[in-house]
Amino acid sequence: MKRIIGIFAIFVLCFVSSGTGFAQTSSGNLDSKAILEMYRDVVVDVETTLTVEVSGGLILMSSVGDKFLVEISGHETEIVRMASNKLKFGGTGFFVDADGSLLTNAHVVKIPGNEINFGPFGSIRVVDYEYWVVQSEKQKKFRAELVGMNTYADNALLKVEGLDPKEFKVAKLGDSDRLAQGDVVYCYGSPYHLSGSLSDGKVSGLHRQIGLDYLEDFIQHTASTAPGNSGSPLINGRGEVIGIHSAGIRTGASIGFAIPASLVDVANLKTLKGGNTKLGWLGMEALLENFDRSGDAGNPSFEDVRQLNAATDIDDLKSLMLLANLTYPEMGVRGLKNRWAIVRDIKLGLEGNPLPAEKAEMHRGDLLMRVNDVEVQSGMDVRLALLGVAPGMSVDLQYVRTDDGAKTMKTITVVVVAKPEVEN
Fold it and tell me: Is 175 a catalytic residue?
């Protein structure tokens, strides 16, 4: 599915604001000049150089310096031809510890499948990657190595070896769970290669899903961003990084999306030896979003029942009516409560080696309620609840089954496996 989404990467750097001596606004937040000064030596440009094999099409006729607009993991990306077998693209990054480690987006450092198809212009196959970190203001450039990445949540860790600690400052991640709509945020990065650009805006939405990554819990914001901001820190009013800018929608208004700090595990990235994280998986998927309902609890509509039949293949009318009643939104003490983590797909393993959900005899149409002690309301909640569960670990699942129109609560324990590394 085509998505015209700009590259906006906002990772979360946080500097402690109390006792800094920086100017504050009447709200107690730091002003933009203070944010700029705090992050001037934290944020850098990230350049990814590709050694490629070029085949067919007009790309063979292109010249050094020619630019191509391509899609990388759903992000519009500008790639520059540097030589006959060299291409370059990039984004932004920021230092997170004193050993020279910095965060950016996975799509800034990795081409899915190591191949780009330019349509009638031909295709390229990537045979090698080279990473550079640039401090434009100081006119300095350093070679970096890929430490690890999480392509499911679009974050990656690079490291510059032997970098003098006096050459940079370190950010720390803030608590993205404390964000609220209306909070002031800043984005610091390199839109269109304009290094050191600071923009401000507000949090316009939380927990957004836009169909870009396997794991999504985006912070929607209005800070101005553009291609090149991928990997930029999203900074709160206290000077803390609470997200990594990842994507944006190109309209007259600023609509950006940042990965929350809660989805970034730096300690895990440091263990990956340049590879991708292993994500725990149940071998099944649940509905990511509810469909618009035309009925109500106690009075399911025909259209609601039809939609559930299409999603689950349940044919028994009583079971579908019960499932509809169980999945209507209801008002709770903390606002509207949704419940649509309905199993829509059970994956089959190899003969003699069934996947967890298959082995546990789960069915399409089962309604997941909890993963371990975490209450889940959607299929994305299920994915996020498994983020800290490594392959080989056990999880407890609680779910409801509606066979023959009767509600049965079930609790099982399964051992998760590694999710196959395929595109979302």
Answer: no
